[in-house]
Design goal:
By secondary structure, the protein is an alpha/beta fold. It is built from twelve helices and eight strands. The protein has one domain (4-224): TIM Barrel (Alpha-Beta Barrel). Helix content is 46%, strand content 13%. It starts with a strand and ends with a helix.
Length: 291
């Protein structure tokens, strides 16, 4: 349903942590101009964990309005509370989002049956296309391929963001689910390899700062043009790594500020990028011809 480079968009903030909607509008325009294939609003990179429900819904609606159907908008609406996830997903659907991205419940540590019932309940409650999101490094919850295959039988569950960084895990899901469900990388460093094995795109942190290069790399990979995709990806490898020197989105928000695209606001408990990493991230931006 959605293919290519899908940016996991940051949520711009003022110095006091309040939301900067003018900068958000400019970022959406920046991504449309640079051929980003879809925008993911208020996911992990968008600091969903510290936005309240009103801010969450309003930010999604703002992105949808600014995008104006020029690019698909996927709304991050996951929660460790099933009822809250349903409310956020319904809010996103009513705002006009094209799909919703739902992270596995964090902290609760549900069983595989609990995961299946969680996603089944949301899918039955809200008839919008839904993308599963597995990122055990953050959630301490790993959704196994067998559970994904069960969920792929539900008509409005259309994809999964597989963010383990394990390419073989992604390939196993592709093999189990066939054309019932699209598999997206959630790990920039291994996204190219997953796409060459049948993945349909990358929900990307790097795309925040290098949208055109990520679009071009993903397009080449989806065409099966390994040499061209690798050539582009090589210029981005330092970013793939260095944008995770501290917890995402700390480095990428600093990089966007360095590029003059947003202010320097971020919400506690996240903090500004440590001074000792500034030169390293700056050098990665230069390697990608962004500074």
């Amino acid at each position: 349903m959605f293919h290519g480079s899908m940016v996991a968009l940051v949520t711009p903030m003022h110095e006091d942590g309040s939301l900067d909607y003018d900068s958000l509008d400019r970022l959406v325009e920046f991504h449309i101009e640079n051929q980003t294939d879809a925008i993911v609003a208020v996911g992990t990179t968008g600091e969903s964990a510290t936005l309240d429900e009103e801010e969450h819904c309003h930010t999604i609606a703002r992105v949808v309005k600014k995008a104006a159907k020029r690019v698909p908008v996927i709304a991050g609406t996951g929660s460790n509370s099933t009822s809250e996830a349903i409310n956020l997903t319904r809010c996103a659907m009513e705002a006009g989002a094209d799909a919703c991205l739902l992270v596995t419940p964090y902290y609760n540590k549900p069983t595989q049956e609990g995961l299946y019932l969680h996603y089944k309940r949301i899918a039955e409650a809200v008839p919008v296309p839904q993308i599963l999101y597995n990122v055990p490094g953050r959630t301490v919850c790993d959704m196994l391929p067998e559970t994904v295959a069960r969920l792929a039988e539900i008509s409005n569950i259309v994809g999964i963001k597989e963010a383990t960084g394990n390419v073989q895990r992604g390939k196993e899901i592709i093999d189990k689910c066939g054309n019932k469900l699209d598999v997206y990388s959630g790990d920039d460093a291994t996204a190219l390899e997953l796409m060459l094995l049948g993945g349909k795109g990358d929900i990307s942190v790097t795309a925040n700062v290098a949208p055109k290069a990520m679009h071009d790399m993903c397009a080449a990979a989806l065409r099966g043009e390994r040499a061209e995709a690798e050539k582009i990806n090589q210029t981005l490898m330092a970013l793939h790594k260095d944008l995770f020197l501290e917890a995402n989105p700390i480095p990428v928000k600093w990089a966007l500020h360095e590029m003059g695209l947003i202010g320097d606001g971020i919400r506690l408990p996240l903090t500004h990028l440590s001074d000792k990493y500034h030169d390293q991230v700056r050098q990665a931006l230069k390697q990608a011809n962004l500074l």
